[in-house]
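question for whoever is on the cluster today: can someone run the full assembly for these? two chains, 1020 residues total. i dont have access anymore since they changed the login thing
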Amino acid sequence: MSDESGTAVILAAGEGRRLEPLTNRRPKPMVPVANRPLLEHVIDSVVAAGIDRIVLVVGYKQERIRNHFRDGNDWGVTIEYVEQSTQLGTGHAVLQAEPVVDGPFVVLNGDRIVDADAVSAVRDRLRDGDAPLVTVTAVEEPRDYGVVHLDGDRVTEIDEKPEGSVHTNRINAGVYGFSSAIFDAIRATNTAGELAITATLNDLAERDTVTSLGYGGRWLDVSNLWDVLTVNAALIHDSDHAREAPATGQRIGDTVTVADDVVLAGNVRVGPNATLSGATAVGSNVTIAANAVVENSVVFPDAVIGPGAVVRDAVVAGNAQIGPNATVVGGEATVVVGDAVHRDVTLGGVVGDNATIGGSATLTDGAVVGDGVRAEAGVVLDGRVESGAVVRRG
Amino acid sequence: MCGIIGYIGDLHAADGGVSGDGGVSSETADETPGSVGEIVHRGLKNLEYRGYDSAGVALVGPTSGLTVAKRSGEVDRLTVPDVPDATLGVGHTRWSTHGPPTDANAHPHTDCAGDVAVVHNGIIENYEALKAELADHTFTSETDTEVIPHLIEEELASDPDADLLDAVRRVEDRLEGSYGICAVREDDDRIVVARRGSPLVLGRGENASFVASDVTAFLEHTRNVTYLEDGDVAALSPDGIEIFASGEPVEREIETVTWEADAAEKGGYEHYMRKEIHEQPTALRQTIAGRLDVDNGNVDLDVSFPPGFLADLEEIRIVACGTSYYAGRYAAQLFEELAGVRTSVEIASEYEFGAGRTPDRTLVVAVTQSGETADTLSAIRRANAAGARTFAVTNTLGSTVTREVDETAFIRAGPEIGVAATKTFASQVATLAMLAVSVGRDRGALAAADARSVLNDLQGLPGAVQQVLDEEKQVREAAREYQDSEAFFFVGRALGVPVALEGALKLKEISYDHAEGFAAGELKHGPLALVTPDTPVLAVLTEGSRAGETMNNVTEAQTRGAPALGCVSAGEAYNTLDTAFEVPDVGTVEPLVANVYLQLFAYHVANEKGRPIDKPRNLAKSVTVE
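^ ran it for u. tokens below:
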């Protein structure tokens, strides 16, 4: 816990509404990709950077986070928790860490995966006494993020989701370095509504030096449901990051095909003649029955995929049951999230926690089935099915 | 229940820690181990959950001699004396059996001269007779333990050539009962220990040796351990450990503990109990991992029976105490239904082999989380003596019960620290259910299709429990609403009965409220007289618990004004309930899932009242006295 190795504050209190129904029962940082929660991938990078004390700011469904990470011993670090009981923005979240943070610290988002380099670069600059620091990375669609305007390496403005034309692809990567002076700055920030950390940084940029740090490494963001699949695939293909799954307790049937881009948790059952391929992650206590085909999908713990089912480009959440010969067609789809229409995204469908899809039912065109839904045999599902709904034939 | 720790070595002198091959845990790696007193004190802290109404230490140094400090109250309240020259020490946390928790009754106990100090777990049954023989000795406590240092003093006085090891061996011959003893003496650089009936484990670091009632006491120092057997006497000296059985030196196997002491830490939770309730999906996934062959309707528990034994089996008798007993009650119904064997459940302390039974056609199954429960061990010994085949279902590798029985199935729930058992109940029932399927299939009593259905239910158990945990808020609100009630009654039928009994036990253990569980049909045969508008009734109304009939009994209570709460199968509705908790559809294990609601209810009632949930008064985790 020495000052040498430093402290990281990770913001993990948010709900992640855009990932509904996956976030109905878990906070967004606990959505699993490559069989481990997003937040665990973030923590891995922090640990790899040599930081041995982590403060998690938790709120929404925090039991899931506490239960998984406990006191950090499994990662060889100390994890402490502070609670943000109402989600009033990222600045407010950082403020919750004030009582337990002493000296400079790194701040990360619990749902954005970066390399250890991004963390150690900030930590090293903090040792030199530079703060505040904002890590900046380049993306193809800057408009969805906080666009960063620079003067040399000085940040002049962070423009959240700008509406007008954008002349840079540099965005705020969400990795910051602060000294404890940031807490007074956050308190001094005048905002109506949410207290975003970027608002404080914009205030500071007018008076003081806010330094930018370029970062060109991996930057994986799960904003929308289909990002679960792309981020999962990116992590599985990144062999450095594909941690060997414990091989204990698996029961794999005869003539099963498991491609080398599939990660299976220790305790899964796969029936005969099943085929698993294409960047697929299968969680603990999952059953994949005989003759099933699972491709480019993320299957959460306790789910059951019935005999002969075909599941492509899909997210199957915890304890969901896919009936015999049910099909998630897969491929590109047009998905509506809130008021926004997203065309040509690769998403076969999403099956929420504890939902039951009857035998020979079909999910098509990126259907998003809420949690606890009961869809009877043979139904065709597309669009959004609200949580708890019962879908009958006819 | 009581805890023992002993340490000897040069850890306290060194800057770094010792290790076997397992190394020092990261948490302690950069801390210096501290003085002998501090090492012993930390060991006591690690053991605190086992017993906690008094604590004490004895430290021995070449010039300071023997220094004893002890008092009633928690370990934190004990001030460990500063003895810079100490080379060894023993410590004890006590949970009172003989004599109330007072400073005088706390261990260590000493002889008249104050040269010998002893800590002890267990019971000396003949201590009154022994005490009568020691008429010229001055006793300062009401404990059975105190006879031991005085007996050692006698032996040392009567034979000038005898040393502490000789004296302990001779005294040990005269003691009746169950015990684990650690003795130290001024001007002797050894700790001498003896085991009969109470667990003692030795820790073998490179530069230090440890003895404890439970490995968690010293796991931060070494993972290489030796479990002593009954009748063993051992001497821990600066040169290492010597073990004797019947006076002859013996070698005992050195085992490596693989689980993490950290796994026993409560992380982000305010109480171990809540953490352990929330760990149930993970624990259950471990319990069933690799064991279910759903397609073939088989179970692979890695246990074996002599050929023909199961086919000829006449009776299964489950022996257990407390929560494990209720797990046994749940399992007994499954054994009869799935394995087609007559099954009875006995409270271990009441168990006798009994008349009219054929030993070689009887399987006696001990259910014990710790594997050290004295009542259960004693029952298993009676079963072994009668010639029955014995079996253990336990959470603890290397525990005593595993050495006493013919075959063991582990529940693999991970360490459980909260005194109130939660996740181990679920894992015990799941393990016993798998055993029932296994026995049923072996006997040809269970069709593959029926087995598959049960295995499907078991496979769905972790997900169903997670669904219940996600509803914690609803339970917390109900707990707030009813916490001030006069009493709580839990009812169910069939598989709902053991769950009702367990639900009531949880609540009484941690909230100190009056709570009773009944078979729902019994309500009208007496207990209904207790029902008032101030006594909520909590009912198990799931599959496997004859919900319709149970609801009739609930209505009887409601007619007398009692509020009614029910755990109800998904898709069913009992509109008259004041609160309904939904239980996902998992067939024959639905009552087990309902139990999670009752665990949460007990937790939140106790938490609202500010009870010391992990250390309820008068209770200890591992009950190693009969």
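summary bc i know u wont read the tokens: DSSP finds seven helices and 37 strands in chain A. Residues 240-246 of chain A have pLDDT under 50 and may be disordered.
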